[in-house]
Specification:
The structure holds two protein chains of two kinds. Chain A is mostly helical. Chain A has five helices and no strands. Chain A has a single domain, classed as Orthogonal Bundle (Non-ribosomal Peptide Synthetase Peptidyl Carrier Protein, Chain A). Chain B has a single domain, classed as Ribosomal Protein L22, Chain A (Alpha-Beta Complex). In chain B, 27% of the residues lie in helices and 29% in strands. In chain B, strand 6 and strand 7 form a beta hairpin. Chain B is globular and about 50 Å long. Classes of the chains: A mainly alpha, B alpha+beta. At the A-B interface, helix 3 and helix 4 of A face helix 3 of B.
Amino acid sequence: MSETDVMQKVVTILTPYAKNPEALAQVALSTHILEDLKVNSARLVDVVLAFEDEFGIEIADDDVDAVNTVGDAVRLISAKLS
Amino acid sequence: MPARRGGRASGENSAANNAANNAENSAENSAENNGENSARNSAKNNTMIGNDVVDLGDAECLPGACHPRFDARVFCPSELALLSGSTEPDRTRWVLWAAKESAYKAARRLDPRTVFSPPRFVVELHGYDSATVTAGGRYFSVDLVATCDYVHAVAYTGGASAAHSCIAVARLSVNARGQGPDRPSAAARKIALETLTRVLRVAPAELTICCDGRDRRIPALCLGANRGLTALSLSHHGRFVAFACALPS
């Protein structure tokens, strides 16, 4: 799966949890999930679980802690898929 | 739900009234406070502090809103047993979550590299209004307020009770909630500054909210020239904003 495909799926998963529609409309790899999209910390758990379901991977909490931006998520997922 | 321990800051009511005219008042202690914002000011000093507020009426907190594996991911076996035995599992879920999140915020002040792995922050509830959280050999005492509308947790390191601190929860007006994604953050900061200005009896210009210095996501209260920083924790969710600040001696 290409990083572009991963990115599209990541954004689709993030969409219902993002409270900043303006940031979501301009989402990029550099977009910060908590600070820009305003996903709250409890919902970030749901997002990670949805990533696991969608991509068939497991993501440890230590990995989650290193995910700040959409790009971080895309790279983490892509690495686990490769 | 019993009232939270600790006394009150004098003149606390004006904080919410003045906070951009957008903060309504906390439900907490409303009978004593005519429904206005509460601020609690207690007696010891503990610099590591964290707080978290959860709006129980927010759609995200309603039954069935979480991923089916949320509980298994977040809670350790003892907490899962608490949930399964609870007559109010949805409320208990967010009490446990708020305790974990507040302890994490306090832990991050000690070490900004602290990883938020929720099951590693193990909560033990003591009745309705307090808990202890252990994580990585650290111990946090947590004061809890759970109303029908919200849960608010304040975690302190070390000390057995709430520190020399100022704490408030306020309800955002509908207008404030509708004025953009940054509005709740701004309201939390404004309430904190207005309340602390009054409690510390200083001019507004003397207080600013800045970064801790080690991590830009960790806020601190700057006390003006040559007076240094003190720990400040800000939180918002849904209709509510909150803060907790370790008061300088």
